[in-house]
Write a structure and sequence with these properties.
alpha+beta; 6-stranded mixed beta sheet; 5-stranded mixed beta sheet; 6 helices; 19 strands
């Protein structure tokens, strides 16, 4: 309030001087000289945005010294004092759950930030983790993420550990400072594909995989399937069916009439859980028969060897 009254006093003097200057021969130069003095003694402590507005006022004076221009300058300078203070947007999730080994993200949105800075602070030890997009911790798992011209400031925690659980604060460098608390809960959860780590599927038959995540936090769990890091959906190719029960925390993947191009690494990913993978080999019937014959041959034991082993066993019993 004191700044605004002081500014109005300066503007009153400015208008009075303008009236006198218009009567002089060199009124244009005198106006510029007085505006320079005004900026030096009256506006040097204002914010950068207000300085920019004042610079626009100077430009207007060099082009027009009419009363309407002076009125516009008055409104521009006083309007800079009407800017809103920074405030948090309360639409983000402030209770975040992260599984051990996964990546957790805390999203903070601040409106009307202006030239203030956003910091992330760990509450338990008051350690400053980030300021702006700069990281101020030796733990390289903590990163700051921000998209230019957006209101969102994200704290990214890579490879979450149980010790990361706790309260984090998103803080804005106003005077006094304002902050908003976020809670990170760390759980141990892993998706599980109910099959061997390697599967051999005959060409032309179906792949049928079931994934569960019983320990995933929350009442509902979203589950996705990937083949070699590429998301599997109905548009990948025909003959694909994915049936997920979010409340039961299960998902079933069926791929009909498989070919050799369906060989690869299949991954099940669940919310707030570590993923699980199996490798599927697609083989033709002849190769499958050959593999079965080779396995049987490796396991075949000659009768003569069995006879020798039996004799040695009997002798050992007799000696005892």
């Amino acid at each position: 309030m004191y700044e605004r009254v002081n500014l109005r006093f300066l503007l009153w003097r400015f208008h009075f001087f303008t009236f006198i200057a218009v009567l002089c021969e060199n009124s244009h130069e005198m106006l510029l000289e007085y505006m320079t003095m005004l900026f030096i003694f009256g506006l040097t402590t204002l914010q950068l945005e207000r300085s920019r507005i004042s610079a626009q006022a100077m430009k207007m004076l060099t082009n027009d010294t009419s009363v309407s221009s002076l009125h516009d300058i008055n409104n521009m300078i006083l309007g800079s004092y009407d800017q809103q203070e920074p405030e948090f947007e309360n639409t983000t999730n402030r209770d975040v759950i992260g599984a051990v080994g996964t990546t957790a993200r805390l999203h903070c949105r601040v409106r009307n930030l202006g030239d203030r800075a956003v910091s992330w602070i760990r509450k338990r030890d008051l350690h400053i983790l980030t300021i702006g997009i700069m990281t101020y911790t030796n733990d390289q798992r903590f990163l700051a993420r921000h998209i230019d011209n957006s209101d969102e400031w994200v704290l990214k925690i890579v490879s979450v550990q149980p010790r990361d659980a706790g309260i984090y604060e998103c803080q804005v460098s106003t005077e006094p400072k304002i902050s908003q608390a976020y809670k990170l809960t760390v759980v141990t959860s892993k998706a599980q594909i109910l099959s061997n780590r390697e599967l051999f599927v005959q060409s032309g038959s179906d792949i049928n995989l079931t994934c569960i995540a019983p320990q995933a936090p929350g009442p509902y769990t979203h589950m996705l399937w990937y083949k070699d890091s590429e998301l599997i959906n109905d548009s990948t190719r025909g003959g694909i069916r994915v049936v997920s029960e979010q409340q039961m925390k299960t998902s079933n993947l069926v791929i009909s009439r498989v070919t050799h191009t369906d060989s690869g690494n299949y991954t099940c990913a669940a919310d707030n859980s570590n993923s699980d993978s199996v490798f599927v080999h697609i083989i033709n019937s002849e190769k499958h028969a050959a593999m079965q014959h080779e396995l049987a041959t490796r396991l075949h034991v000659p009768h003569s060897l069995l006879l020798i082993l039996t004799i040695f066993y009997i002798l050992e019993r007799v000696i005892k």
